[in-house]
Amino acid sequence: MKVLCNRERLREGLAVVNSVVPAKSPKPVLSNVCMVATDDALELVGTDLEVAVRYRVEDVKVEDPGTTVIPARVTLDFVRDLSGETVEFAAAGGNCTITSGGDACELVTVDADEFPVVSRFGEDGSLSLQGGTFTKLVERTAFAAAREQGRYAMHGVLIEIDDDKLKMVATDGRRLAVASAPIDLSGAPAPEHATIVPTKGMQLFCRVITDPLDQVRLAFEENQLGLRTRNAEVFARLLDGEFPRYSAVIPKEVGNALEADGDHLQRKIRLVANVTGDEARAVRLSVKKGKLELFGQSAGRGEATAHMDVEYKGRSADIAFNPDYVVDGLKNAERELVRLEFNDKSSPGKFTLGEDYVYVVMPITMDV
Amino acid sequence: MARGGEESGLGQAEAIIRPLPELVRNQIAAGEVIERPASVVKELFENALDAGAREVRVDLEEGGVRLVRVADDGRGMGPADLRLAFAPHATSKLRAVDDLDHIATLGFRGEALASIGSVARCRIYSRPAAELLGWAVENEGGRVSEPRETGGPAGTHVEVRDLFYNTPARRRFLKRTATELGRCLDVIQRLTLAHDELGVAATHDGRRVLDVEAGMGFRERIRRVFGAELADALEPVEARDGDTVLTGFVAPPRFARADTSRQLWLLNGRPVRDKVLIRVLREGFRGHLEHGRHPAAFLRLAMDPARVDVNVHPAKAEIRLRDERRTFGFLVNALREALRRSDMATPGQVLLDRAARRDPAPGATLPDPGPLRRPDPRERPGDDELRVYEVPGRPLELREREDAGPAGAAPAPPGTEPADPAGGWAASDDVRGPFVVVDRTYIVRALPDGLEIVDQHALHERVTFEELKAELERGPLEVQRRLVPELVEVTRAEARRLEEHLPALESAGLCFSVFGPTTIAVQGLPVRLRRPGPEELVRVVLDLIERTGRVPEGVALLEEVLHSAACRGSVMAGDTLSQDEIESLLRRAARIPEAQTCPHGRPTRVRFAKLDLEKAFHRK
Ligand SMILES: Nc1ncnc2c1ncn2[C@@H]1O[C@H](COP(=O)(O)OP(=O)(O)O)[C@@H](O)[C@H]1O
Ligand SMILES: [Mg+2]
Q1: Does residue B413 belong to the interface with chain A, where contact is any CB pair within 8 Å?
Q2: Are residues A285 and A357 in the same domain?
Q3: A97: which residues sit within 8 A by CB, 6+ positions away?
Q4: What CA–CA distance (Å, rounded) separates B409 from B340?
Q5: Does A151 sit within 8 Å of B481, measured CB to CB?
Q6: Is B180 touching ligand 1 by the criterion CB < 6 Å?
Q7: Environment class of residue A128 by beta-carbon count within 10 Å: exposed (0-12), middle (13-18) or buried (19+)?
Q8: CB within 8 Å: A150 and B474
Q9: How far is B594 from chain A (nearest CA, A)?
Q10: Where are the alpha helices (DSSP H) in B62-217?
Q11: A345-354, B210-219, B227-236, B413-422: lowest mean pLDDT where?
Q12: Which of B170, B319, B460, B555 could form an S-S bond across to B164 if both were Cys, CB 3.0 to 4.6 Å?
C-alpha cells in the first residue's frame, strides 16, 4: 500500500477514529486503525465493537492500493506533530513508513485479517435529514441518560419516528427529556424495533456532523443504527432491553403552572445553588401569585434566597429540585419563555422548553 | 451400702457437724480472696499503700507463683503487730461498726494476710521508722513463728513463696507463667497509674519490667507503663458537670485491643472495673471501633461519694451510680469530644515498626517498659519524635475545617492564610492532586511533608455516613424521587420479607415498594446516597434481614447499609475516580472530624511523615 495525503485532512480523520479506539481493551487489535486504500480513496476504520467509524480522507493520491493496520494513537500523534503539508504512507512486509518532508517513522503493522469487519452503510430504507436537526435533538436529550446505574436500556437515547417527526428520549429514572423535530420521511419505513443508542454512539454521530446544514442519512437496522455524512459512516450497536414507557410519566393534567424567562430562572437557580453542598442538591421553589422565591440551603454553609417575577396560575405551592437537573434542561431551552407545571411537591415537574421539547424532573422531597 | 448398725453407738454420741480446723477455714476464705498470684500482688500492694508507702518494689518469679515479694517504705509493724498480722480478722484499719461508713484504706477486713498465709510459705520483715531494729515472722501453711529481731531498712517486706503448695487442686487452676505474669503486671500497672505520688519498681525473674519514679505525672506514668507510642498519641480529656469531674486521656482508636487491659478508670482515686464504665467507653468510641475491640483510655472520675456506691468486695470493684443516665451521657459526650480532637490516622511509623517486627520476633510477651535510663520525668521526647507524633495528625485540618469548623474558632477573614501553628504542613495542604490510585482502592497522595494512603472505599463510607447522619439529625432526609422506579428482581420469599420492613426502610429515605410478586421498585433514595445503587441496596438490605432478622431504623440502618456495601466492595466497585472526584471526596472528608476511620473502625488513611520515609530508607 502506498498513499499520499493532505496532512490536515488526515489528522482530522485520525482524530475521529481515535475517539472510538479504546484506551485499554482485552482485544489489543482494537487499539489500531485500519487504513484501506482503494483506487481513489483512503478509508480509516476504527471500532471498539460497540461503535464503529469509517472515515474517508479527502485529497489523497493512492499509488498502490492495499490495507494496513497500525497503532491508532501513535499514528495520530506523529501525524499531528509533523510540519509538512503532505504525508506519505507506505506499507510493505510488516512495516508501515510514514514520511513527510525529511521526517519519517516506521511502525510495525498488525495482520489485517485480525481486524474486525465493519459494515457498510446501506442506503436502502435510509432517511435523510439535516445534520443540525440530529445534533440539536441529541443535545436536548442525551444529558438525561443514565450514566452509572440503572436499567441498561436507560444508558442510551431512544430514537423514534412518530408523525413525521424524529423523536429522541432519554431518562436516568429521575428526569426525562423528550425532544422531536419534523423530518421528511419520503416513504422510508419507521424502524420495527426500539432503537436505543448508547450515549457514546450519539456523541460519535455528533462528532462527524461537522456542518449543521449538510444532509445526513440515517439507517435503522436490526441491531445497529448507521449514520452517514459526507466523509464518515458511523455505526452504533443498539442497547437491548426495555426502555421505560415514557409517555406515562409525563404529567397530563396539572394544577400549577408558571411561566418565566428561562435565562433568568437559570441564573437564579445557580445563584442559590451556590450554597448547597457538593452532594446535597435541593433548591426549593416557592410560588405565589406573580412571584417566585428560590431557597438553597446547606447545614455547613448557610442559606440563600432569590426572587423573580413570573406568570403564575395556581395556588401558593412549593417544590424542590436538584438544581443541576433543572439547569441541564434550561441550558438547552429553545425559547426565552419556559413553562413549569406541577401538581404538588412530590409529583413530577414538567418543563416545557420549546415547541417540541419537554423535560420532566422528579422533585426532592423532605418529608417522607 | 452397709447399714450403720455396728457403729451406731459411737456415732450417736458424737456430733457429725464439727468446727473446721483453722487452717482449713483460712484456706476456704483464701479461695474467695486469693485466686492467683495477681490477687496476692493486689493485697500486698494495697497494704503497702495503706501503710503510707512512697516507694513500692515488687519482685516476681515464675509469674508470681514461685515468689511475690512486695517491699515498701511505709510505717511498718512492731513485734506485737507482727504476731497478729497473719491472724484472721485482725486489722489495724477498722475498730467498730461505725467505721465502715468512712473507710479511707483499701483493706479493712483483716483477712488477706491470713488467707495468703494458709496457702503459701510467707515471711514478713518489718521495721517502723522510729525503731532501730526490725522484726521478722514466718508462716508456713498456717504455722506462724515467733517474731525475731533482724536488721534492715525501715518499712515492710512481705514475701510469698510457692503459692498453693499445700492445695494442689488450686494450683492446677493456674495458667501459664506468661498469663499469670500478665495478670500481676496488670494489677501493678493499675495501681501505679492510680497513684501519682508513688514510686514503683517491679521485676520478673530478675528482669526489670516497670520503673516509675515518685512524683511522675499521669501521662509520664502511662508512657513508662505502655510505651511512648501510646503516650504520645493520647488526647487529654477534661470535663465537668457540677461536682462530677472527668480528667485523663483517651488514645486514638488504632490503640484499641481485644481486652480491656489498656483501660483504667479511677473513681475518686481508686481503680474500678465496672461494666457501666466499660460501656461508657464503648459508646464514646462508637463508630470508631471494630467489633470486639476495646479502646485505650485512662480516666479519673471524681464525684461526690454520696452519688456513687462502690462495692468493695476485695476481688471486684463494681460501682453503682445514683444518677446513671445523666452521668453516662456526660461521660460519653466528654469522650467523644476528646476523641474527635485526637489524631486518628495510623502513622506510617506504626506500619514500619510492624514490618520490622515481622522479621524474627524477640518473643517477649512483656509490654515495652520504655527506655532503661531514668530520664527526667518532665523531659520531652526528641525533636524528631515530636514531628512524627504530634504534627502528622493535622494535615487534613485545613482551612475548610476552620471555616465550617466548631464554634469558638473565629473564621479567618477572607484572603488571609490561617497562621501555621505547628510550623509544619497544616496550612499548606490543600488536598490537591495528583493522586495515584492503586487497585482502584488506595489513593496515594503527597503531603507537604510526607505522603498519605487513603482507602477510598472506607473513606467514602465514612463521609457518606457522616453527611447522612448529620442530615438526619437536622430533620427528614432529602429524598430524590424517581420518575421511573428502578425495578429489582428478587425471589418471592425475599419480596415478602422486605415488605414487612418498608416503613423502617423509609425512615432512612430508602423508598421501596413491592411491585409484583418478585419485583421490588425503588421509588426514591436519599440525595446524598449516590452509591451503592438501587439494585445493590436491595441486596444489602435483604442480606441484613437474613443475618439479623430485622431492619434497624434511621441512622443505624444507614450505617449498616453503607458498611455492608463497603465490605462487599460495592460502594465504588468498578469506579475509577477521576482526579477531581478524589479531590472532592478528600475535601468532604476534611470537613468531618470523624473521617479518620470508617464507621466500623477500620482506618481510612495511613500517613507517612518525612521522618518515616527517612527511617525506611535508613537515612536516619
Ligand atoms: N505493708 C504493711 N505495712 C504495715 N502494716 C501492714 C502491712 N501489711 C499488713 N499490715 C498490717 O496487717 C494488718 C492485716 O493486713 P490484711 O490481712 O491485709 O488486712 P487489712 O488490710 O484488711 O487490714 C493490716 O491491718 C495492717 O495493720
Ligand atoms: Mg490488706
Answers
A1: no
A2: yes
A3: A88, A89, A90, A91, A104, A105, A106, A107
A4: 15
A5: no
A6: no
A7: middle
A8: no
A9: 15
A10: 79-85, 112-119, 168-172, 177-194
A11: B413-422
A12: B170
Nearest residue by C-alpha to atom 19 in ligand 1: B110
Sorting pLDDT into bands at 50, 70 and 90, what band is B247? Answer: very high
Contact B484 A278 (CB under 8 A): no
B48 lines ligand 1 (CB under 6 A): yes
For residue A106, pLDDT over 70 is answered with yes
CA distance A270 to chain B (A): 18
B393 Cβ contact list (under 8 Å, min separation 6): B342, B343, B344, B345
Number of the ligand 1 atom closest to the C-alpha atom of B90: 14
Do A104 and A12 lie in one domain? The reply is: yes
Contacting residues of A for B588, CB less than 8 Å apart: 278-279
Residue B39: CB within 6 Å of ligand 1?
no
Please state the ipTM of this predicted complex: 0.78
Q: Which residue of A has its CA nearest to B532?
A: A149
pLDDT at residue B391, rounded to an integer: 28
Portion of chain A with pLDDT greater than 70, in percent? 96
Summarize pLDDT for A118-167 with one digit per residue, the tens. 989 988 888 999 999 999 999 999 999 988 766 788 899 999 998 889 99
Looking at A166-170, B309-313, B328-332, which range is the least confident one?
B309-313
Average pLDDT of span A214-226: 92
Closest residue to A244, CB basis, from B475, B481, B484: B484
Instruction: Verify whether the Cβ–Cβ distance B528 to A280 is below 8 Å.
Output: yes
For residues B441 and B439, give the distance between their C-alpha atoms in angstroms, rounded to a whole number: 5
CA A14 to chain centre: 20
Domain that holds residue A315: 251-361
State the first-to-last Cα distance of chain A, in angstroms, to the nearest integer: 69
Asked whether residue A368 is domain-assigned, the answer is: no
The CATH number of residue A203's host domain is 3.10.150.10
Calculated CA dihedral for residues B453, B456, B462, B463, nearest 10 degrees = 100
Q: Is B432 helix (H, G, I), strand (E, B) or coil?
A: coil
Q: For residue B421, what pLDDT is reported? A: 35
pLDDT band at residue B603 under the 50/70/90 scheme: confident
- A148 in reach of chain B (CB within 8 A): yes
Q: Which residues of B touch A149 (CB under 8 A)?
A: 486, 533-535
Is A366 domain-assigned? no
Judge if A258 and A241 occupy the same domain. no
Could you tell me if A258 and A209 lie in one domain?
no
User: Which residue, of A194, A216, A246, is where some domain finishes?
Assistant: A246
Ligand 1 mean position, distance from CA B473 (Å): 56
Average pLDDT of the segment spanning B558-564: 76
Judged by CB atoms closer than 8 Å, whether chains meet at A280 and B591 is answered as: no
pLDDT digits (tens, 9 = 90+) for B519-553: 999 999 988 787 777 888 898 888 888 877 777 87
Final residue belonging to a domain, choices A64, A92, A114: A114
User: B370 vs A84, B54, B231, B285, B358, CA distance in Å?
Assistant: 74, 22, 11, 27, 20
Tell me how many domains chain A contains.
Answer: 3
Q: Are A294 and A268 in contact (CB under 8 A)?
A: yes
The residue among A24, A149, A175, A325 with the most chain B CBs within 10 A of its CB, best to mutate, is A149
Q: How confident is the model at residue A11 (pLDDT cuts 50, 70, 90)?
A: very high
